[in-house]
Amino acid sequence: MSTYIKRSIEDQIRKDVERKMVFLAGPRQTGKTSLALHLFSIASVSATDRYLNWDVTAHRERIINEHFPAGSGPLILDEIHKYSRWRQLLKGLFDLRNDELRIMVTGSARLDHYRRGGDSLQGRYHFFRLCPLTLRETGVSTIDEVEAMMRYGGFPEPFLAASEQETRRWSREYRSRVLQEDLAGLERVMDIALVERLVMRMPELVGSPLSLNGLREDLEVSHRTVSRWVQLLENLYLIFRIYPFGSPRIRAVKKEAKHYHFDWTTVDDRAARFENLVACNLLAWCNYQQDVEGLEWNLRYFRDTDKREVDFVICDRDAPLYAIECKLSEKKPSLPLRYFKGKFPQVKAVQLVLSADADLVTKEGIRVCGAHHFFKDAGL
C-alpha cells in the first residue's frame, strides 16, 4: 500500500538521527522501512543505494565487504542483527563517518535482546520500538472504527486493505514467514512444526495467566523447552508478556505472566480480542514514554490471592498510575477495579467499554468510556 500513516515516534526519531544512530525494532511489517524511507524522503528501496537489507543477497555482500555509499546522507540497514559481526561493523562505521552519515538500523527480531552481551555500541545510538498501528495514529474516533480495527488488526497492510479475507490470508502467511525464516535463521530449533502448534494454541489463552506447565503437557515437551520457545516468540515479536503488579497491601500474586499477540486477529474470542487490542495500544504508550520521554513506565496487570483481577496496571517504576479494565458492554465498574481504586485512590481508574460512545466519571472517580475516547486523550 502506498498510503503512509504518520507514527507517534516519528518526530523524535527525526531529531535523534541527526546526532546518533537510531535503532528501530518491532514486529515484521509494522512499517519500519516505510517510516525510515519517509523520514529521509526516499521514494522506494528500489530507487536508492542508501537502503541495504541483510536478507537480500546483493545487499548482504555489500554489508560484509563494507561497501557503503560515499558522501553524506542517510544509510538504512535492515535486519543487520542477523550478521554475527554487526556490532563491530556499526561501531567502526559510526566512529569513522558519524559526521556525514545518518544511520538507521531496523529489525524485526528484538534488537534490544540481540544487541546485549557486552554492548560495544553504548552511547552511539537511541533505541525505539514500533508497535502495530494505534487507535490514535489511525485517527479512530467512533465505535464502528474501533470495530474495524478489531477485525483487520493494526498491521498497515491488512488494516488499509479493510478486508477480512485478506486479513486472514495475511495473518497465516505472516506467521509462516516469522517461524520458517526468522526463527530458523536466528535460533536452533529442532522442531519448528511443534513451535507452530504452540503459536496456534496460544491465542485461546489470551487474557489469562499463562501456564507453561499446561503448555508442556499439551506439547509433550519439557518445561525448559516450552519456556525457551515462549521466550523466542517474544524475541521475534509474535507475542509479548506482562507481569503482575505486586504490593503487600493487596496480597497480589507475583509470578504468572499474561501474554498477548501483536496480531490480535488470531484471537477468536471477542472479549479477549478487545483486551488484546487494548494491550497493544497500552504497550505502545508505555514504549513511547520509555523511548521518547525517558520515563520508566511499564505495563502490568493485577491479580490477588482472592482472584480479584484488573486487566492492566500502568506503573512508573513501581508506582501505579492507571488501572484499566476492558469490557464489551458492561458500563458498571467492575468490583476488582473499584477495589483497586480504593486501595490506591491516586490511581486513574478507567473501564474501557467496546460498545460505549459515552465518556463519564462515576462517583467513585472511575472513568467509563469507549477506547477511542481514552486513547485520544492519552496522546497516542
Order of strands in the sheet with the most strands? 7-6-8-9-10-11-13-12
Q: How many domain modules? A: 2
> Strand content of the residues, in percent?
15-25%
Percent range of helical residues: 25-40%
Distance between the termini: 23 Å
Oligomer: single chain
Overall 3D form: globular
Number of E-type strands: 13
What structural category do the secondary elements indicate? alpha/beta
| Mean pLDDT rating | 92
Report the radius of gyration as a whole number of Å: 21 Å
Poorly predicted runs: none
Q: What is the number of helices?
A: 14
Describe the overall structure:
With 380 residues, the chain is of the alpha/beta class. It folds into 2 domains: 10-129, Rossmann fold (3-Layer(aba) Sandwich); 143-378, no CATH class. Helix content is 39%, strand content 19%. The protein has 14 helices and 13 strands. It has helices at residues 10-16, 32-39, 57-64, 86-97, 111-114, 143-152, 156-161, 164-186, 192-201, 212-219, 223-235, 270-291, 335-343, 371-378, and strands spanning 21-25, 51-53, 73-78, 101-107, 125-129, 239-244, 258-261, 297-303, 309-316, 319-327, 348-353, 359-361, 367-369. The strands form 2 sheets. It has an 8-stranded mixed beta sheet, sandwiched between helices. The chain has a 5-stranded parallel beta sheet with strand order 2-3-4-1-5. It is globular. The chain starts with 9 loop residues before the first helix and ends with a helix.
